[in-house]
Amino acid sequence: MTYQSPLGLLFAAILAVGGVFAVPVMAQNGPLRIEIKEGVIEPLPFAVPDFIAENGGAGTFARDIARVIASDLAGTGLFREIPASAHISGVSGFDAPVAYADWKAINTQALITGAVSASGDRIVVKFRLYDIFSGQQMGEGLQFAGTPQSWRRMAHKVADAVYSRITGEGGYFDSRVVYVAESGPKNERAKRLAVMDYDGANVQFLTDSRSIVLAPRFSPTGDRILYTSYQSGFPKIYLMDVASVQSRALGDQPGTMTFAPRFAPNGRTVVFSLEQGGNSDLYTVDTVSGALGRLTNAPSIETAPDYSPDGAQITFESDRSGTQQIYVMGAGGGEPRRISNGPGRYSTPVWSPRGDLIAFTKQHQGRFHIGVMRVDGSEERLLTSSFLDEGPTWSPNGRVIMFSRETAGASGQTSLYSVDITGRNLRPVPIQGAASDPSWSPLLP
Q: Tell me, what DSSP letter sits at residue 386?
């Protein structure tokens, strides 16, 4: 995919972004672009000097915000930071002229400059992006304002804006991930729900470890979480409000077990598995009225359902053919069609936010893989291989997949990894302790 920045226009509209405000500062067009395609990608060299501290209280924020921006971009594998030790020119002020020749001499292609001011319970961050080889500013500068506690979000928003302008894709840095935090020995793991920034920072625990919890899933708006809990002694689906951390049972039917829930794109309907009498089928439940609907009625095990982004179809795993395979059917039920056709067993299908791919877990010849395929089952690609990789979840822009990886042996640990959909840039998510079952939120408002 190729992006060339459009002709920018000076404008003064203010965009409210959940306690952080974006104000365009200046605009000019520029030809900087990055090619994103299969195979080897040469990372684009960029520089992020420490932002300018415009008053006495902004020094730490100015340094830390620049470092988070650099980490976000370099972590994609699409960008390579030129270290400060190689810089010829400094940045003396936010409005100071850019020494294009000095930055070009060290092969900088994109330069990000910024400034921070701090006063009481408010900090203001502004930035500009420059195309060094064309000698022009690229797109509009933006200004963000928020509380000191939101400084990381503002850094992520700057990185998202830079990423989008250069790649032409939506960003994903200003997002969160809910997951299962694990502790204790492998055969007696304590599990509780936790949520973090996409990069492992700002971990918050949402439940205690008195009951096993599984498979948390964000709502399309990121304000609620579905999960499965054993607090009643049997698996049941619960719906949690993220702000209040209050939960209630959902789709509870006497004598049944419910699990593997997913939101529909409308945020009101939930699809899930219901087990009764040794048989598991797919159902829906309305989160407001509680009305149940049955989607499948087969002697096989149907589970791990997920909606397409337009809400018209559902993908799920079933052993109706004798082994775990991936199927697709209409959102209202009907005859499913099998889309997995390679050797091995397939499970945990998840539809890309772009609608063009389905990610999955594959088990074959004693190895586990995270892979992707087209929605008709064609063009299967395996992105990872290990003792145990499972449970993929998509970044908001459909570019990156996060998943769980467990190491072998009695002391094996679970951790979270991410990988680009090309199979490049496999890397661990830096969090403390064992973790599994990630679910990526949409971009934060």
A: B
Residue 177 to residues 201, 206, 227, Cα–Cα distance (Å): 10, 12, 13
Q: Rounded to whole angstroms, what are the CA distances from 22 to 61, 124, 141, 422, 445?
A: 18, 10, 10, 32, 12
Q: Tokens at residue 24, please?
A: 């365009």
Give the pLDDT confidence of 151-170 residue by residue, as tens digits.
999 999 999 999 999 999 99
All domains in the chain, ordered by first residue: 15-167 (3.40.50.10070), 176-440 (2.120.10.30)
pTM: 0.91
Do 89 and 97 touch, CB atoms closer than 8 A? Answer: no
Mean of all residue pLDDT scores within the chain? 91
pLDDT at 275 over 70: yes
**Torsions phi, psi of 355, nearest 5?**
85, 0
For the purposes of burial, counting CB atoms within 10 Å of the CB of 290, is it exposed (0-12), middle (13-18) or buried (19 or more)? exposed
**Which tokens sit at 366?**
């004693």
Pinpoint the alpha helices (H) of 120-245. 151-167
Contact (Cβ atoms closer than 8 angstroms) between residue 365 and residue 346: no
d(CA 276, CA 296): 13
Phi and psi at 442, nearest 5°, equal -70, 175
Q: Which one, of 285, 278, 235, 240, lies nearest residue 260 by Cα?
A: 235
CA 214, CA 211: separation in Å to the nearest integer? 10
